[in-house]
């Protein structure tokens, strides 16, 4: 059985940094890529950004460090709390709160840009939920504001339907860890249940931590069509080679 997305990320929040070989380096690299897209689209200077799936702050902290005025929100209150604490430990102010991206608690037109990164959109499992989240992102953007949304390359993944992800070894201040996923595809060929394994040192051995969730392998055309339907324009997909970000990035404007 899979759990809810909130339960999954509440449980994972303390270990999320272990996903990356070097979390600090990943924060800097991802922020540089996203900051480059923000400044290319909106111009130089600081902009007011919402990271509506901020997790533990992987993108939000780096973007705040780059000079932007960043607010974080996340479905997981445990993750949002850690994001604020991690930012504060680095001398960075990052207001972060628990919020569902389908019902964002911000006024219309409050932000210059909205970031939704790290495959977060894939946890929305119906067309209605996808439309609701994109509609809210558009609502909180000022006219002409920028959406930056990143997903796994599901165009290729849907064709191949892999059953696992390669193991990832992390070397952090709290020791080594190994992370990998098993994917169990639904009969529709679009959704899959993931078992998320982390092996964490425990004395002379390893402790195995397993979390479970369901994702929707959304293709770029499906996301583009849903975004256009709620009023986004100038939709452009940037490949990792072009953007420097590790996933394909959709850039779009609020009409």
TrEMBL record:
Q: Indicate yes or no for the key word Transferase.
A: yes
The record's annotation in CDD domains points to: AdoMet_MTases
Q: Which domain of life is it from?
A: Bacteria
> InterPro entries recorded for this chain?
Methyltransf_25, Methyltransf_Superfamily, SAM-dependent_MTases_sf
Set out the biological process GO terms recorded for this chain's protein.
Answer: methylation
SUPFAM superfamilies listed in its UniProt record:
S-adenosyl-L-methionine-dependent methyltransferases (SSF53335)
Q: Name one GO molecular function term.
A: methyltransferase activity
Name the Pfam families on file. Methyltransf_25
Keyword terms of this UniProt record: Methyltransferase, Transferase
Q: Respond yes or no to whether keyword Zinc-finger is given for this record.
A: no
Methyltransferase domain mapped to chain residues: 50-145
Q: Extract the PANTHER family matched here.
A: METHYLTRANSFERASE
Write the protein's name: Class I SAM-dependent methyltransferase
- According to its UniProt entry, this protein's organism is Streptomyces coacervatus
